[in-house]
Write a structure and sequence with these properties.
Helix content: 25-40%
Radius of gyration: 17 Å
Number of helices: 6
Shape: globular
Low-confidence stretches: none
Length: about 210
C-alpha cells in the first residue's frame, strides 16, 4: 500500500503589535491588513497578539521559544532613539531600551528564523541589529533605517510575505530569506516606495544575517 503523504505543516508567524497611537479612540493598526493579506497564503498560520507592556512582550516571546515555534516573529512598534538609546516603544509610559543588557535579554535564544521589527530608526543602528541577531540566535533581523509612513510599511511588509510565501504557476516560493530581502530591495526601488537617494546601497529596510562574514 502506498503511504499517504502527510501535508506539510504550516509556517507560523507570530505577529505582535503594540499600541501605535496614544489616543484611546485611534483605530491605527496593521492587524486587520496583515490578517486579510496572509489568509490568502495556504501555507501560513498567523498568530496575533497585542502587546501593552514589557510583561506582555516577555510572555509572548516566551511562547515563541516552545513548539510549535513560529518561523517569523514580527513586532510592530514605534521605534525611537531617546538620548541615543534605541527603544521599542510599547506604550506612552513604557519602552524597551535595547542598549540595556536586561532588556536585550528579552530576545535571548529566540531561535526562530526571522525577527522582523516593523519600527522606525532601529535598522539604522547596525551594531544594535548585530547584537539582536547574536542574542536571539535568529538567522536574520530586519528593521527600518529611518522614519517610514504606514503606507511604506504596509507595502514593504506585504511584498516581503508575497516573496516568501507567494505562489507562481502553482508552486510555492522556495526563496531563502536572504533572497527575499534582496528582491524586496529592488522592488521597493522600482516601485518608488523606498525614497532614499541610493535605495539599493542605503536601503529603507535594513537587514543583518547570521551567515554574513
Amino acid at each position: 500500500m502506498t503511504p499517504v503523504a502527510r501535508p506539510r505543516p504550516k509556517d507560523r508567524i507570530l505577529f505582535l503589535e503594540t499600541h501605535l497611537d496614544p489616543s484611546p479612540s485611534s483605530t491605527r493598526s496593521e492587524i486587520r491588513f496583515m490578517r486579510e493579506l496572509l489568509e490568502n497564503f495556504q501555507d501560513v498560520e498567523l498568530v496575533i497578539e497585542r502587546v501593552h507592556s514589557r510583561a506582555d512582550l516577555e510572555t509572548f516571546l516566551g511562547h515563541a521559544r516552545v513548539r510549535p515555534q513560529p518561523r517569523v516573529v514580527h513586532i510592530v512598534s514605534h521605534g525611537s532613539r531617546q538620548h541615543h538609546h534605541p527603544q521599542l516603544v510599547l506604550s506612552a509610559e513604557e519602552a524597551v531600551d535595547l542598549d540595556r543588557k536586561g532588556d536585550l535579554r528579552l530576545f535571548q535564544d529566540l531561535n526562530v528564523e526571522v525577527l522582523f521589527l516593523s519600527c522606525c530608526l532601529l535598522g539604522g543602528d547596525r551594531d544594535l541589529m548585530r547584537r539582536l541577531l547574536e542574542t536571539s540566535g535568529v538567522l536574520a533581523v530586519l528593521s527600518y533605517a529611518g522614519a517610514v509612513t504606514d503606507y511604506q510599511a504596509f507595502i514593504t511588509e506585504s511584498l516581503f510575505y508575497h516573496l516568501a510565501y507567494g505562489t507562481y504557476k502553482g508552486k510555492r516560493s522556495d526563496l531563502s530569506f536572504r533572497e527575499v530581502y534582496e528582491r524586496l530591495k529592488f522592488a521597493l526601488d522600482y516601485l518608488g516606495i523606498d525614497d532614499h537617494k541610493r535605495p539599493l546601497v542605503d536601503p529603507m529596510l535594513e537587514a543583518v544575517f547570521a551567515d554574513e562574514s
